Request: fold
Amino acid sequence: MIDENLLEENDDLFEHHRIVVDTKQTLLRIDKFLMDRLPNVTRNKIQDGIKDGFVKVNDASVKPNYKVRPNDVIVVSLPEPPRETELIPENIPLNIIFEDDDLLIVNKEAGMVVHPAYNNWSGTLVNALTYHFQNLPEMEGNEGRPGLVHRIDKDTSGLLVIAKTKKSITSLAKQFYDHSIERTYYALVWGEPEQDEGTINVNLGRSEKDRRITVAIEDGSRGRHAITHYKVLKRLRYISLIKCNLETGRTHQIRAHMKSIGHTLFNDTTYGGNKVLKGTQFSKYKSFVENCFKIMPRQALHAKSLGFIHPISGEKMFFESELPADFAEVVEKWENYVQFT
Reply:
């Protein structure tokens, strides 16, 4: 089972394998053919890759039951370039707030990438995990990401659960898949939502103009089902502190959903929140906002709490974290601004 939080839609593809079929090859299903030629890849993963368009024969997409023929040219492409190095353990400190024999809870700092990927092969949470822990399990379909069951964005801070055993990763992955994990995020957004609380139930998918961005698909014609519940905690005139509970876990879900209802995250460069979107045009106000941007040079999003059933004991577990210093300082500055201006 592959956790939906670790899935991405296809981006630009990079060639990983090119196979020219032997002239004496007998007819054979392509999924079976590739199993013998791609080490450490399951048949299910190969079939999924074929269905998702990662495998082409003679420059054309095929189905998993396609029969390979002599002289066929098979190309396997993936969203990320081929890696030149293996996963390297790195002695990077981890802020572990809980650990037992089966799992641990890490409070990730903003700025740390969760797992190695294009342009970020080192310095990630996974590099640190492989240094501090040996033999962490991997989910099928997510090889090279030991211990990971879910992830948060590089510039989002907060809590992650890491599995230490195969049984734990299977159980936690199922809880994420069943949407039974409780996840609460705190965010600063531009403007004040009309309602004190609400639910955003809108499909999300990659932007056709910029593949780095997730957008709301209002008509549901494509994308993936996504639900975010939000509640306003503080109204600060031009921005608001909100709490979000995720029912699903899509890429950039909170960032895209809040933008879709006109409340872009504060200082979210990717989604346009790093400009003054609400408030006056007076230079003093602009200077105040820019100073807040400098204090917290990232999107104002923090994974504040996690709740789940312990994979072994069956006990209900719940963990909560404090707002990081940059986030808390910006909230305090806005409270003072509202009170004294």
